[in-house]
Every structure is written in C-alpha cells, then in structure tokens.
C-alpha cells in the first residue's frame, strides 16, 4: 500500500468502500460470467495513482471478489488483458480487442448492427432483465 495508505487508511475511504459493497454486493466479473460470488474487494476501474479526486469517485469503483481482483490487477500491471467472457461469449475485459467490435448474427444468420457503442458492464443501479438484454441486442 505504501504511498496510498493515506487514501486507504482514512475513514472516508472505509465509508465509501462499505457503501460500494452494499450497492454492488456481488463480484462484477463473476456476474458477467454467470457466476454468483460475493464481492469482498473494491477496485478502482481507472487506477488513481494517488489522485484523491479519482480515488474517491464512486463512479470509478467496482466490486470484485479477491481472485478476480488479483487476476485483474496483475493483468493491468503487466499491460495484459484479463481472461474471461460473459454469458454471450464477449470478453469481460473492456480492453480486449474484441470488446464491442463483434457483430452477433441475427435471425437467419444476417449480421445485426454493431454493438461497439454498448458497454460491456451494466451500471450497478440497473438490473439485467430479459427485456433489458433484448433491448441491448436489438439496438
């Protein structure tokens, strides 16, 4: 932790961390891979590198289980891509070259419109229902 202990050791971070885990109690990556795993780690989507504004930005946080966090952090640190795909076969890691670039086949094998503008992660305040998935796939 070293240089970041000022951030992670403060009451403000502990409250923000607790709130993140309350709002998103399941691991985001496991959920995308159709697994149900309790989250126990709060990860910064964009590394804050000591920037307190970025460190305390709730929109820059995601809940992960420790194994996913460790694999994800290791991949980020090494400039690699995290392995894994969601239930549709698309990469979980938004940095993957295939992320958002695939055109799924529609009825009769005809390509649908590109989903390049569709984010792979669902906002934590939105529940994924069959209707939401159908809407995303038909856009």
Give a description of the structure.
The structure is a single chain. With 139 residues, this protein is mainly alpha-helical. 34% of the residues lie in helices and 6% in strands. The chain has 6 helices and 2 strands; from the N terminus they run αααβαβαα. It has helices at 5-8, 11-23, 28-32, 52-55, 66-77, 130-138; strands at residues 41-44, 61-64. The protein is globular, with a radius of gyration of 17 Å. It has a two-stranded antiparallel sheet with strand order 1-2. The N and C termini lie far apart (43 Å). Mean pLDDT is 76; it is low at 102-106 and 108-128.
Which descriptors apply to this entry?
139 residues, mainly alpha, two-stranded antiparallel ribbon, 34% helix
Summarize the structure.
The chain has helices at residues 5-8, 11-23, 28-32, 52-55, 66-77, 130-138, and strands at 41-44, 61-64. The chain has 139 residues and is mainly alpha-helical.
What is the strand and helix layout of this fold?
Elements: H1 5-8, H2 11-23, H3 28-32, E1 41-44, H4 52-55, E2 61-64, H5 66-77, H6 130-138
Antiparallel strand pairs: 1-2
